[in-house]
Write a structure and sequence with these properties.
Blueprint: E1 2-8, H1 15-24, E2 31-37, H2 44-54, E3 58-62, H3 68-78, E4 83-86, H4 95-107, E5 112-116, E6 123-125, H5 129-146, E7 158-161, H6 162-166, H7 178-188, E8 193-197, E9 199-201, H8 212-234
Parallel strand pairs: 1-2, 1-4, 2-3, 5-8, 6-9
Antiparallel strand pairs: 4-7, 5-7
Helix pairs in contact: 7-8
């Protein structure tokens, strides 16, 4: 079973589209959708409650610790699946890649599958130019520092075996830097993972909560924290 975790903050324009997307696709495996409401100020929570009452595949929970990091932690804790996948509510991730993820991780008995938007076979549409440049610089720096072939550490959309992911706990990041912390901890513990190309498209409705100038120091802290942990684990 796969648990698909959506952190939600002020995404009222996208929630129904998410539900429709899953209804349009007949996923070839058992799954649950977990919405974690991260202190939304719009009608997101009411919409989540409505769809949850109509569909037993949909669950929801209110975040206890404000921030996407807290939402992800909570979603993992309450999930019932053998595998967990985080998807973003802006509909930037491709549901066909979700199917590929599940097939790849389950058939190959992996601990994780990391998607990349920047390798042969991938698709990346509408990425803001300034953000793209900063993304490639930082991810290349992490790649060199870790002597690793992966090049899209900061992308949220990845799949994990829940038991393996729990072995990396605690996840300490409170914001979007949790998406850097998770793969770095998998790599630092020498867990078994693979890399595949995925698609990504910029959001069409709503607004991004990602603020580069507010997150730079958090990403650097997470990188240093995970690097120190990696060194200590070797000892």
């Amino acid at each position: 079973m796969l648990s698909i975790i959506f952190p939600i903050r002020d995404e009222e324009k996208n929630i129904e589209n998410i539900i429709n997307l899953f209804q349009e696709h007949n996923l070839p495996f058992e799954y649950e959708i977990i919405f974690v409401n991260d202190f939304s100020q719009d009608s997101s929570l009411n919409l989540i409650k409505k769809f949850s009452s109509q569909n037993n595949l949909i669950r929801y929970e209110d975040n206890k610790n404000k921030g996407i990091g807290g939402a992800i932690n909570l979603g993992i804790e309450i999930s019932n699946g053998k595998y967990c996948c985080i998807m973003m509510a802006d509909l930037s991730d491709d549901i066909n890649d979700l199917i590929k993820y599940y097939k790849h991780i389950s058939e190959n008995d992996l601990d994780a599958v990391f998607g990349s938007r920047f390798i042969k076979g991938s698709i990346c549409e509408g990425y803001p130019y300034k953000k793209l440049i900063l993304n490639r610089i930082f991810n290349t720096f992490v790649k060199i520092l870790y002597l690793n072939k992966y090049n899209d550490f900061t992308n949220a959309f990845k799949i994990y075996k829940k038991e393996s992911l729990k072995s990396t706990f605690p996840l300490v990041s409170e914001s979007f830097n949790i998406f850097l912390e998770m793969p770095l901890k998998v790599i630092g513990r020498n867990l078994n993972y693979d890399i595949i190309p995925i698609g990504w498209k910029n959001r069409k409705t709503g607004y991004t909560k990602f603020k580069i100038h507010e997150l730079r120091s958090k990403y650097l802290f997470t990188l240093l924290y995970c690097l120190i942990e990696k060194v200590l684990l070797k000892k």
